[in-house]
């Protein structure tokens, strides 16, 4: 790849990343969430028995203190509760409340609308190619930075 093409790729990816984050932030604000909190809450909602902070951190690809800070920012919404883990006084299990579960369809709707808007008028074949290229790029970057870098935060 020559320098001009590399510059074009970098500009396009940087611009898309910023625009996507702003569009996502605006939509999530209507739900009372910030980018990254949607993924955290959605992941927690997928586990009926909840997760420990360590388990959540591992799923998000972050360190436990980062997951703890993210949970602290969500605490006021009443979207989850903490329960002690039997046999381990240092651990707590995070469980999504009914209020948290009620947000999940809204989160999924935001994701669907954002995906639709992002792909715009591209036809099915172009969408398939774009998605394949994005997934290939993610796989390539994951190889250079590690498998655990999954979170937006």
How would you describe this structure to a colleague?
- This protein has 153 residues and is mainly α.
- The chain has one domain: Arc Repressor Mutant, subunit A (Orthogonal Bundle).
- Helix content is 65%, strand content 11%.
- The protein has six helices and three strands.
- The protein has a three-stranded antiparallel β-sheet.
- It is globular, with a radius of gyration of 18 Å.
- The model has no long low-confidence stretch (mean pLDDT 88).
List keywords for this structure.
single chain, 153 residues, mainly alpha, Arc Repressor Mutant, subunit A, three-stranded antiparallel sheet, 11% strand
Strand tally: 3
By CATH, the topology is Arc Repressor Mutant, subunit A
Question: How large is the count of helical segments?
Answer: 6
Indicate the percent of residues in helices: 55-70%
Q: Based on the structure, what is the oligomeric state of the protein chains?
A: single chain
Q: What is the CATH superfamily classification?
A: Winged helix-like DNA-binding domain superfamily/Winged helix DNA-binding domain
Largest sheet: 3 strands, antiparallel
Q: Tell me the Rg in angstroms.
A: 18 Å
């Amino acid at each position: 790849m020559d320098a001009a093409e590399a510059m074009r790729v970098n500009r396009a990816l940087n611009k898309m990343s910023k625009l996507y984050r702003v569009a996502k932030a605006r939509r999530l604000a209507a739900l009372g969430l910030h980018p990254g909190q949607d993924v955290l809450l959605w992941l927690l909602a997928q586990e009926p028995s909840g997760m420990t902070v360590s388990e959540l951190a591992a799923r998000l690809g972050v360190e436990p203190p980062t997951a703890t800070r993210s949970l602290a920012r969500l605490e006021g919404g009443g979207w989850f509760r903490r329960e002690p883990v039997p046999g381990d006084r240092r651990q707590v299990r995070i469980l999504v409340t009914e209020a948290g579960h009620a947000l999940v369809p809204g989160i999924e709707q935001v994701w669907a609308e954002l995906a639709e808007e992002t792909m715009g008028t591209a036809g099915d074949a172009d969408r398939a190619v774009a998605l394949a290229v994005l997934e290939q790029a993610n796989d390539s970057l994951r190889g250079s930075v590690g498998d655990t870098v999954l979170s937006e935060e």
